[in-house]
Amino acid sequence: MKTLLLVGIGAGDPDYITYQAIKALRRSDVIFLMDKGAAKHKLNALRREICARFLDGHAPRFAEGLQPERERDAADYRASVDELNRDKQAVFEQLIDEQMADGETAAFMVWGDPSLYDSSIRIIEAIAARRSDFVYDVIPGITSLQALTARHRIPLNSIGRAVEITTGRLLAEGWPQGVDSVAVMLDAKDTYRRFVGQGLYIYWGAYVGTADEILIAGPLDEVAENIAITRAEARERNGWIMDSYLLRKEGIEQG
């Protein structure tokens, strides 16, 4: 029997990793890394840094799989995601079959937390549904939204009120009903700009927890264009961007 561990490693700062995650990595025989191309080499470099810093002499071997790419601006978004996950599943299975011996433990080092806008759990569940040669466990990590609110020194929700976590694509359909605070991930099109003039405050961050971290906060009407310009420049400079933000109605008491 093989054992797979989906290990949340936090949102950028190696110090975000939990002791539970460290213990999981220390019991692993192999660490699986997904190669996302030269532009994102810093992500796997950070994963290797975490292992070098925290594994206390334990030296698992590393095995890399090629990260499939999703078709951007596809007419059918859900179909493009399903196709991406099928491609990822094939890569995951190849790693399990070719890089693990019976009785070994392997870890996928998942950015942030495996439960929040990450496909790893669903992919492993799909594999486990049709084969019985491995078991798996999930180790939580600090999410990018937790890191974002900590760096801005704010709570995620206002007092006694709900907060919605969504994507830029869904936010483009309109402000969610019944909430004063909206946390947004995976926004490639600066969707917050659609809400200028609606009395909102924004807390934005890119590469949070890393040496490239950028933070901007203020009334949306005043900082929206600065965020858009800063974001475009950062993406051009680094070849990729990882950002998130919290929109909150002004005048709402935080808590």
UniProtKB/TrEMBL annotation:
GO terms for molecular function: precorrin-6A synthase (deacetylating) activity. The keyword Methyltransferase applies. One of its GO terms (biological process) is cobalamin biosynthetic process. The keyword Transferase applies. Pathway: Cofactor biosynthesis; adenosylcobalamin biosynthesis. Residues 3-223 form the Tetrapyrrole methylase domain. Keywords: Cobalamin biosynthesis, Methyltransferase, S-adenosyl-L-methionine, Transferase. SUPFAM superfamilies: Tetrapyrrole methylase. Transmembrane segments: none annotated. Signal peptide: none annotated. This is Precorrin-6A synthase (Deacetylating). It comes from Ectopseudomonas guguanensis. The lineage of its organism: Bacteria, Pseudomonadati, Pseudomonadota, Gammaproteobacteria, Pseudomonadales.
